[in-house]
Amino acid sequence: MVADPELPASWRKTFMTLWLGCFMTGLNFSMTMPFMALYIETLHPYGKFELNLYAGLAFAVTYLAQAIVSPLWGNLADQKGRKLMCLRASGVMTFTIFAVGLVHHAWTIVLLRFVQGAFSGYINNATAFMAGETPHNRSGAVMANMMTANVTGNLLGPLVGGLLAGFAGYRVTFFVCGAMMGIVFLLTLFNTKEHFTPIPAKKMKPMKEIFAQLENKQLIIAMFITTLFIQSALMSIAPIVSLLVKSLMHGTGNVSFVSGVVAAMPGFGTLLVASRLGVKMDKIGPLKVLVFGLVAAMVVFLPMYFVTSPWSLGFWRFLLGIANAALLPAVQTVLTVSVPREAFGRIFSYNQSFQAAGAMLGSMMGSLISGLFDYQAVFLVTAALMVLNLLLIWKVHRPLENEE
């Protein structure tokens, strides 16, 4: 996409900068979050249920805050532009991530994570930024390529974070991540150009009117619900992956490093096929690719229930990454080609609210189920979510095929 001669140099520079910004944001997230439970464990001798609960809350409150405030930021994005939203997110994350490295109590982490969630959203706003700058006939490829940035960061983050935490401790990892988000802020400020005409608040169409003009309202709502289900399934194991790996290793060996490898495995799978699936979406349509992803995810989640070693878990998570490449990019492509450009900020912000709500529900669901039963039981529930999601998409997809 960057080498395409039909796209202007300013577009390529903006794309490369936002790609790098999403990469570094994903890197920072994955450098710290897989080890959050282990970090909390060093603050106080918590019991298993209490530790799982704190780890779940540290994830969930961020997404709770996102779900509440994202529509407000989306409304502002359609008035002021998406670049300002990227700067807001990266600027606040610089301070909150750094501050987590200074805390001495789990509740302080929960509070900082809530503040971070209320002001975060760099990746979603960068995606909306590029959606507004890109022709519709190339949206699938661009959305998939933007996803590779986050995925590559998530891929390398656990490995880098595991090594850094092993050598310098968990606190230093947060300090490094905070500094990196400061770099993202500066790159976005000076290296991106948005072709955006501010819309006065009085002239903005209300969302009720925009929805009334949409041809496929049910499809848009189904995409919001799909985002919630997908994110719930993907985040259900995230808060406790290091604890699951620790139990599979029976508390011996370099748990931090192995946890990092296991957490990174989906990234390998996604990175392997994301670009190809993006091109495929532009040829056959994103809904067909989305159905494939849901079926694949459902099939992959079930064997995870029976894993007995971290390496077998890592293998199935690698396959999950391949399925993941066909999920959220397909949803974002459907939204990009189905709504008017002047509503991108609000539509993507609503989608981010559903994504955040899904991450919050998934985090708490995984923590509670693992606390009450065992860690692997989480995978049965996530497989069931994929089945429900598949039925929803099938119900919406069939009428559209008949119309075509």
From TrEMBL:
The keyword RNA-binding does not apply. Its main location: membrane. It is found in: Cell membrane. Pfam families: MFS_1 (PF07690). InterPro entries: MFS (IPR011701), MFS_dom (IPR020846), MFS_trans_sf (IPR036259). Keywords: Cell membrane, Membrane, Transmembrane, Transmembrane helix, Transport. Residues 14-401 form the Major facilitator superfamily (MFS) profile domain. The keyword Protease does not apply. It is a multi-pass membrane protein. The chain crosses the membrane at residues 18-40, 52-73, 85-107, 168-190, 219-245, 257-277, 289-308, 314-335, 347-369, 375-394. This is Multidrug resistance protein. It comes from Ligilactobacillus animalis.
